[in-house]
Write a structure and sequence with these properties.
The protein is of the alpha/beta class. The chain folds into two domains: 3-181, Glutaconate Coenzyme A-transferase; 198-437, Acetyl-CoA hydrolase/transferase C-terminal domain (Glutaconate Coenzyme A-transferase, 3-Layer(aba) Sandwich). The protein has 15 helices and 24 strands. The chain has helices at residues 3-10, 14-17, 38-45, 85-92, 106-113, 139-148, 198-208, 223-234, 249-256, 281-287, 298-301, 304-308, 344-353, 412-421, 425-437; strands at residues 26-28, 53-57, 76-80, 96-98, 119-124, 132-134, 151-156, 170-172, 178-181, 216-219, 241-247, 272-277, 293-295, 313-318, 321-323, 328-329, 332-333, 336-337, 358-362, 366-368, 374-376, 378-379, 397-400, 403-406. Strand 1, helix 3 and strand 2 (53-57) form a beta-alpha-beta unit. Helix 8 (223-234) packs parallel to helix 9 (249-256) and helix 14 runs antiparallel to helix 15 (425-437). The radius of gyration is 23 Å and the shape is globular.
């Protein structure tokens, strides 16, 4: 039987497909912009029939139909590998919970640790002539999801970019149980935020000055990494490479400015390697069938051994706040979950192990709350309940608009002194007093 005939035999309506889901099932919703659409709406229609359906996914970019009802939490529970804004809303409703992970290990969790999915359903690109459905910019951990799921339902979307070049970036029709043709909606976008602020620019300028020609880049999401990307695109840097967890719009700008060719990469030469991508249509169009790009699972992209094998690896990430010990919180505001650990620690560790590599954690020195009160992001100790994303022993460079410091190998008093030096001037005296109380300040005066 040919692939076309097999496709016809497995093709069903969304309403028919979701009948395989039973109360108590674990259902995988894929990842990010590959989260199902018509299948989600069909499952929502069955709400009254189902109880205790446990869902997994992450970085939801638009509301889910299954959670439209006020009593949705009595029927469905969302378990997130990485939180986005909508998922934070679900936490407040009691419908969602964060699953703490080290992202590089996620494929292995499916294969070795967690409850196997009863059903996996997610969006894919149309089947190719070889019988494969491409995951789009969501290789991440979907290969492991498909290997371990009892049933696989794919929702075909003609607008899903085909992301090639690596491994575990698609599923063959022979492994698929049911096929649903979606409504070919636009792929959800994740904007890079507003234009870079003056603070973003100051931080970016310091980091760009530390990047050599031939460096290999990893950028996180947010205003500051985006500002760094914009400055790189305008710089004289050349022969840059990309090996990143998340592909973002900034990479497209750098590549189109002629700065990226991957010629100096020790592995995957001439390829931009990434685990998943979320951005604007500009980025999705750039990823589509682009042979320069390499879509691969996070067990590869985020593996410290792969990262450290790349010379001059430059890792650039944000944080929420940090303390005078050098503990980095990049995922919560106290006990309130904001995002997730993702692969930040993997890249912090891998970049430092790289020959000539550097890891940068950047943030503005202050933030202003809803009442208009300014607070320091540099705290004496992290707030109660805050998560330590990067431990103090692993930190390399910290950057604010007031400077850049390398805290690797420093004693507690040296570390406190360096970190306070890049705090906002309005808060430095108070931080010194607090450091003295914590017995990590060597002198009693400035």
């Amino acid at each position: 039987m040919g692939f076309t005939e097999e496709y016809k035999q497995k093709l069903v309506s969304a309403d028919e497909a979701v009948k395989v889901i039973k109360s108590g099932d674990w259902v995988d919703y894929g990842w990010c912009n590959g989260t199902p659409d018509v299948l989600d709406k069909a499952l929502a229609k069955r709400t009254d029939e189902l109880k205790d359906v446990k869902l997994r996914g992450g970085i939801i970019l638009k509301p889910l139909a299954i959670f439209e009802r006020e009593d949705a939490g009595e029927h469905f529970t969302w378990n997130s590998w990485h939180m986005a804004g909508y998922e934070r809303h679900l936490i407040a409703r009691g419908c969602s919970f964060y699953a703490p992970i080290r992202y590089s290990e996620l494929p292995r969790y499916y294969r070795e640790s967690i409850e196997k999915p009863d059903v996996a359903m997610f969006q894919v690109a149309p089947m190719d002539e070889h019988g494969y459905f491409n995951f789009g910019p969501n290789a991440s951990h979907l290969g492991a999801v498909c290997e371990t799921s009892k049933k696989i339902i794919v929702e075909v979307n003609k607008n899903m970019p085909v992301c090639i070049g690596g491994t575990e970036n698609g599923v063959h029709i022979s492994k698929v149980d049911l096929i649903v043709e979606g409504n070919n909606s636009d792929i959800p976008e994740l904007g890079a935020g507003g234009p870079a602020t003056e603070i973003d620019q100051k931080v970016a300028e310091q980091i760009v000055n530390e990047i050599p020609n031939g460096a290999c880049l990893q950028l996180g999401i947010g205003g500051m990494p985006n500002a760094v990307g914009s400055l790189i695109a305008q710089s004289d840097l050349k022969d840059l490479g990309v090996h990143t967890e998340m592909y973002v719009d900034a990479f497209v700008d750098i590549a189109k400015a002629g700065k990226i060719n991957g010629s100096k990469k020790n592995i995957d030469r001439f390829r931009q390697t990434y685990g998943f991508g979320a951005g604007t249509k500009k980025m999705y169009d750039y990823l589509n069938n682009n042979p320069e790009l390499m879509s691969a699972p996070v067990s590869y992209t985020n593996d410290i051994r792969q990262i450290s094998a790349l010379d001059n690896f430059i890792s650039i990430n944000n944080c929420v706040d940090l303390d005078l010990y050098g503990q980095i919180n990049a995922e919560s505001a106290g006990t309130k979950q904001i995002s997730g650990a993702g692969g930040q620690l993997d890249f912090v560790l891998g970049a430092y192990l790289s020959n000539g590599g550097k890891s940068f954690i950047c943030c503005s020195s202050t933030f202003t709350d809803k009442k208009g009160v300014k607070h320091s992001r540099i705290r004496p100790t992290l707030a109660d309940g805050s998560i330590v994303t990067d431990t103090r022993a692993n930190l390399h460079y910290i950057v604010t608009e007031y400077g850049m410091v390398n805290v690797k190998g420093l004693s507690s008093w040296e570390r406190a002194e360096k970190i306070i030096s890049i705090a906002h001037p309005d808060f430095r005296d108070e931080l010194i007093k607090e450091a003295d109380k914590l017995h990590i300040w060597r002198r009693s005066n400035k």
